[in-house]
Amino acid sequence: MDKSKVLGSTLIIAGTTIGAGMLALPLASAGIGFTTSLVIMISLWALMAYTALLMIEVHQHADQDATLHTLANQFLGTKGKWVASFAMMFLFYALCAAYIAGGGAQFAERISTFTGLEVSATTSTILFTLLVATVVTVGTATVDKVNRVLFLIKIVAMAMVLTFLAPNVTESYLLSMPVEQGLVIAAIPVIFTSFGFHGSIPAIVNYLDGHTPSLRKAILIGSAIPLIIYVFWQVVTLGVVNQSTLLENQGLSSLISTLATTVHRTSLGQTIGIFADLALLTSFLGVSLGLFEFLGDKINKGQNSRSRVIVGLVTFFPPMGFALFYPQGFIAALGYAAIALVVLAIFLPIMMVKQARRQATEQGYQVLGGNLGLIVTSSVGVVIVTAQLLITAGILPSLG
Predict the structure, then answer these.
(1) Which of 83, 118, 241, 336 has the fewest CB atoms lying closer than 10 Å?
(2) In this structure, is residue 155 part of a structural domain?
């Protein structure tokens, strides 16, 4: 197998995983401490890597270019296909709502910084959505060109942020324990969402010609890169600001200003702000493009400009409505996205792999763990969904 293809696939998985969810990690972990969040992150990374390998096992019993919907239809029938479609759409809409809610607030600050004009949260949210909607509606090629430039700048900004914050880490802050036990469970859905990359697996399978050893390598290394970056990010955020201050200053804007104030660097605030903007923007571009193409295929309106505008309205109007009515909903929307991600990344792979193992006429690649691994993974999926439902019901504390 071509090594450059394996490297490219590894970076696609890493790039898909590292996004705006990274910004939510300090907010979700503020009340549980670094050690607890580290244990949760490593556990959820292992879980997501395991279910991704289950997807590879399923793919060897299907066509090389099979999509998630094709796989669900093949192994679970029409009902499985509809469940996959609904979960995919719910996930896309929830993520878009989160990115608009977070990006709208950030965009208002950027307008004020560069132009001196004060705009309302409603106006900035609408302008931010229109900006991204225009790029996505024009076409995938435009998104690709814009995203390449933004991603490069994002990596540079992230490296600068980590370099600025690292010398200011205080060991006692990292040793802080959970403020409230319920926060440990409440943090799981948001942290879980930060490790989602399963939507890109079918494309990777096709790109690597279904070569199982290469796919395993790309998944394990590609998903481990974000884990390492997340650990460093948690060290330099949770280690710079104490728990009580983080809990009092929830929200992206508050997190950025708190970090900048704590290390006494105005330029750091601007650098973190740029990184946060780009993390939101690149994630939003990728997810909204996926939703746009998904809805375009379902609506089947053709490729003329009028039909693309219609698909664009259906893509962006509902999540923008959520952000306008619930402007502080960045963390909440990521929590709801976790429910759909559990279906797509845990329940569907487990159900499909069980069916594939029953139907298999010859022994191919099989993920270690057997039925016990499937049972444990399913149980964790139930815990994540239950946690988000309890947060919604007000039984568990909400985050952000």
Answers:
(1) 118
(2) yes
Question: What's the Rg (C-alpha) of the chain?
Answer: 21
Assign residue 350 the CATH number of its domain: 1.20.1740.10
For residues 292 and 92, what is the distance between their CA atoms, to the nearest angstrom?
9
Amino acid, single-letter form, for residue 148: R
Please provide residue 104's backbone torsions phi and psi, each rounded to the nearest 5 degrees: -60, -45
Cα 32 from Cα 16, distance rounded (Å): 26
Q: How confident is the model at residue 400 (pLDDT cuts 50, 70, 90)?
A: low
Identity at 290, one-letter amino acid code: G
Q: CB of 276 within 8 A of CB of 252?
A: yes
The pTM of the full predicted model, rounded to 2 decimals, is: 0.84
| Host domain of residue 135 | 3-393
Is pLDDT larger for residue 244 or for residue 70?
70
More confident residue, 54 or 70: 54
- Kindly state the DSSP code that residue 344 receives in the 8-state scheme: I
Query: Is 169:259 a contact under the CB 8 Å cutoff?
Result: no
> What residues contact residue 363 under an 8 Å CB cut-off, 6+ apart?
none
How many domains in the chain?
Answer: 1
Q: Between helices 305-325 and 121-138, what is the axis angle to 10°?
A: 150
Q: Is residue 258 part of a domain?
A: yes
Does the pLDDT at position 73 exceed 70? yes
Residue 280: which H helix or E strand, with range? helix 266-299
Q: Do 290 and 199 form a contact (C-beta atoms < 8 A)?
A: yes
User: Going by C-beta distance under 8 Å and a sequence separation of 6 or more, which residues neighbour residue 8?
Assistant: 207
Closest CA to 106 of 233, 229, 274: 274
Q: Which CA distances in Å does 366 have to 114, 190, 201, 353, 374?
A: 55, 30, 17, 9, 12
Residue 117's contacts (CB-CB under 8 Å, 6 or more residues apart) are 111
What pLDDT is stored for residue 300 in this prediction? 61
In this prediction, residue 191 carries a pLDDT of 92
Please write down the HEC assignment for all residues of 331-378.
HHHHHHHHHHHHHHHHHHHHHHHHHHHHHCCCCCCCCCCHHHHHHHHH
168 by Cβ neighbours in 10 Å (0-12 / 13-18 / 19+) ranks as middle
- The C-alpha atoms of residue 293 and residue 199 are separated, in whole angstroms, by 13
